[in-house]
Amino acid sequence: MLGLYLHIPFCSAICNYCNFNRGLFDADLKHRYVEALLREIRRTADGSPADTIYFGGGTPSLLDAHEVAALIDACRQSFALTPGAEITLEANPETVTPQTLEGFRAAGINRLSYGVQSFRDDELARLSRLHSASRAADAFAMARAAGFDNISLDLMMWLPQQTVRDWLESVDALIALGPDHASMYMLEIYPNAPLRDAMARGRWSVAPDDDVAEMYVSGLDRMDNAGYVQYEISNAARPGRESRHNLKYWTDGEWLGFGCGAHSTRDAVRWKNLSSTEEYIAAVQGDGPVATERRVLTAEDRLEEALFTGLRLNAGLDLPAVKGRYAIDVWGRFGEELEPFVERGFLLYDGRSLKLTRAGMLLAHEIMAVFIR
Ligand code: SF4
């Protein structure tokens, strides 16, 4: 089954740490962009079965409900969308009202993913986010009132000035709301991020590595105790509420991305659309190609990716399945280099599967480097 990803590159303000493909909201540009997206979806139509749609951004909740409805309809007309398909919209807490949420629900959205990042106002202010902790809690309550029974909340750890205690305060606040899914990422501050200057001016620092390890492990321990099940390095869910769309990225799945900068992977080919919003619109409206960076994945590329993404999952790598698909004995080929990680308690190997332990997830990059030859 295909997943369909729709990129919405508009935000009300640009956060000081963000390096996603996005720009400032402009009503005219949004209108022209949605027209182009509809056109790209329709011209790609081939009736293939699809079971997820994901509106990511940027800030997809800046779309009007009728635009979301038109885009979902275009997907339905162009692909064989399964009954019960998971249809997610990423939303920023400050953008929603009871009316917009009801509109999104009526349009067909059945999963909301809120970018909360923190339940502490001082941390949100340092990240230049537009919402407050109480606005996030209100947005969550509004979504429940509008009938959403599948809501994910994102948090970020390792924020400037954040202590382990501060982090756990956010985790506890999240648990108290009771979302169906949670994502917990570590903030990465890229080299030219305005946040770097703000940190220098404010003399803010980030917690030492040992504290980050404690944040990660204790945050997830609290999620365990609250009945959530971690299923991927950064994701935990109530049983049955894992993100079906995101699982496609981690399980060798196939997806089509629409919109500027969107990535697609299908039939062992990967490509990326033009990043610039204006160039993307012009190309689609001129019936020109939007795909750039097209790459045919070799058997070795696919194997490497299956190993990387498989290890991100708590279920780990199913070694007989990898052998059946890629004709490789993973332990035979990499076992000698992996053994030290098993001995130090970072990796579990039982002859049939290979899994990272929670402590091992903190060293995922180092462990996965073994697979790069
Ligand atoms: S709202 Fe999200 S996509 Fe937009 S600037 Fe902030 S972090 Fe980036």
Strand and helix map with partners:
Elements: E1 2-8, E2 10-11, E3 23-24, H1 27-44, E4 49-57, H2 65-78, E5 80-91, H3 98-107, E6 111-117, H4 121-126, H5 133-145, E7 151-157, H6 164-177, E8 181-186, H7 194-202, H8 209-225, E9 229-232, E10 235-237, H9 244-250, E11 254-258, E12 263-266, E13 269-273, H10 277-285, E14 291-296, H11 299-312, E15 317-318, H12 319-326, H13 330-343, E16 347-349, E17 353-356, H14 358-361, H15 364-368
Parallel strand pairs: 1-4, 1-11, 2-3, 4-5, 5-6, 6-7, 7-8
Antiparallel strand pairs: 8-10, 9-10, 12-13, 13-14, 15-17, 16-17
Helix pairs in contact: 1-2, 1-10, 2-3, 6-8
This protein binds iron/sulfur cluster.
Proportion of residues in extended strands: 15-25%
Number of strands: 17
Oligomer type: single chain
Helix and strand content put the structural class at alpha/beta
User: Within the largest sheet, what's the order of strands?
Assistant: 9-10-8-7-6-5-4-1-11
Identify the overall geometry: globular
**Cofactors and ligands:** iron/sulfur cluster
Keywords:
globular; 15 helices; 24% strand; 373 residues; 3-stranded antiparallel beta sheet; alpha/beta; binds iron/sulfur cluster; 9-stranded mixed beta sheet; single chain
